[in-house]
Write a structure and sequence with these properties.
Blueprint lengths: L12 H14 L5 E4 L7 H8 L7 E8 L2 E8 L6 H8 L4 E2 L3 H12 L24 E4 L8 E4 L5 E5 L1 H8 L2 E3 L11
Parallel strand pairs: 3-5, 5-8
Antiparallel strand pairs: 1-7, 2-3, 2-4, 6-7
């Protein structure tokens, strides 16, 4: 199944990008913001547009562990292993919250109106990689020179070193994917 995203974001990109810039500058993180002008339809299209491996694209996933939210940063080509996340964070159960819950939380983070009852699932790019939540970076990302992370706006993506991303999010590192990511192309 292809993960797709629309060409126009639901949030004000200037606000989203400004907040991200302030957060990264506060901790001195080196990064490069890249425009995405070709309106890719999927992660594989984005990878082709940027001429990178799909496994270099980070997808933030919001999970709920015993009532608390956390963010997992893993490759878009990897499959999360919820049991490994559960073991890592010391929770008996970790689950994916419904789209309405995540949209409501994201709306509070970004200062947006509440989520409608029939909220669709979030697109991977709608959640910026810095959420302010406890964050786990998948260990498999650390072997890469750069990863490409969403910034909450479909028109932009950020190239950042995995260690810089970990530092910017105050993340812990863990093995949270059930299979190895595809090798670099």
């Amino acid at each position: 199944m292809k993960k797709s995203f629309p060409t126009k974001p639901d949030t004000d990109p200037n606000t989203t990008l400004d907040r991200l810039r302030v957060a990264l500058d506060a901790v001195g993180v080196r990064r490069r913001l890249l425009p995405v002008t070709d309106s890719p339809v999927s992660l594989s299209d984005l990878a082709a547009t940027l001429r990178i491996a799909e496994s270099d694209i980070v997808v933030p996933v919001i999970l709920e562990a015993e009532g608390d939210y956390l963010t997992i940063l893993a490759s878009g080509s990897a499959r999360l292993a919820l049991s490994q996340v559960s073991d890592l964070v010391g929770a008996q159960r970790v689950r994916t919250p419904g789209p309405r819950s995540v949209r409501k939380w994201l709306g509070k983070l970004l200062g947006l109106p509440g989520a409608p009852p029939d909220s669709p699932a979030l697109n991977w790019w709608e959640v910026p990689f810095i959420t302010g939540l406890p964050t786990v970076v998948d260990r498999a990302l650390l072997s890469r020179e750069f990863v490409y992370a969403p910034v909450g706006d479909a028109g932009w993506i950020m190239r950042i070193g995995p260690d810089e991303m970990r530092r910017a999010t105050s993340a812990v590192v863990g093995d949270v994917t059930g299979r190895k990511t595809r090798p670099r192309e």
